Amino acid sequence: MSVPKIVLFLVGCAGTLTVFALVWPLVAPTYAQLQIFCVQPWLSSELRLTIDSEGIAVSRGEKFLTQREFLSFGGLGLTLALWLMTPGLSWKRRVLWTVLGLGVLFLWHLLALRGLIAFAEALEAQSAGGLMALLYSVIAVGDWIVPVVLWGAVLLAYRFKGSGASP
């Protein structure tokens, strides 16, 4: 791939991430509400999930258990940037892979939220709070790794098929 294409890709990614950062505060509460809607049926009725200024707060009665912060969804912006700015793919494929990538990341976020809640409940019963930082780290790393791995795997598959699509 030529240097101008690489520069265009990087500038496009930076622009996409900038737009995402500007729009995200407006979209984040709706995205959080969608997660709550999807996860709530699998939770006990005594757990309450609410949206506050920082993210999704989980509590049991008046006792705060844990929180999933809005800032932890940055992988959505990375997914948009990687797929929409990839040279060599038609716009139809870029949009298709963007939608699929966002869907995979949404499932990751649902799994992470459910896992965080289950872990918080276990910690509440056992008082082993030191492991919560480890779980937060695994979730955060996954939020950034999942888009890159999916993007790389698809581009490698296209490369092997001979389409010439490469970053």
UniProtKB/TrEMBL annotation:
Species, as recorded: Acetithermum autotrophicum
Keyword terms of this UniProt record: Membrane, Transmembrane, Transmembrane helix
UniProt keyword annotation of Transmembrane present: yes
The name this protein goes by in its record: Uncharacterized protein
Membrane spanning residue stretches: 6-27, 70-89, 95-119, 131-158
